[in-house]
Amino acid sequence: MKYTLKVIEPTPWSFTIEFDEDKAKRNGYDIQTLYDYTDRNVSRYGCVRIAQGTWKAADGKEVESQCLALSLLSRAGWVMRNIKSMTAFEDDCDEQVDYLDVLRRNNPERLYA
To answer: I need a labelling partner for 19 at 20 to 30 A (CA). Which of 4, 29, 63, 113 fits?
Structure first.
């Protein structure tokens, strides 16, 4: 069964993660479990799930909350081995930020094939 993300309107200081269902199966993960693990990990920084695969940074601490959450996730092998896309939305940028592209340029060692 293919898993479908609910697409929402981009919200400043939020991020969306899409896991690759085929990679997840190969690596022994259920895709819903990956989203639940993500939620547990980013909630420590005040991020709140606002849709399947989308989290909003903590009010009043948006920069710190979102940056810490994305940094944590990019260091987690279980995330990076199963990721399809990771997109951030900020209030000072008119376009979405492809966080995997940021990692390709700055921390390529965190990316898996």
So the answer is: 63
Rounded CA-CA distance 66/74 in Å is: 12
pTM to 2 decimals?
A: 0.85
DSSP output for 27-46:
TT--HHHHHHHHHHHHGGGT
Domain-wise residue ranges, the chain: 14-110
Strand order in the sheet with 83-89: 48-51, 54-56, 14-19, 83-89, 97-98
CB atoms within 10 A of CB 87: 18
pLDDT at position 9: 65
pLDDT in tens, 30-82: 999 999 999 999 999 999 999 999 999 999 999 999 999 999 999 999 999 99
Inter-residue contact 100 to 29 (CB < 8 Å) = no
What is the CATH number assigned to the segment(s) 14-110? 3.30.70.240
Measured distance CA(15)–CA(24) in Å, rounded: 20
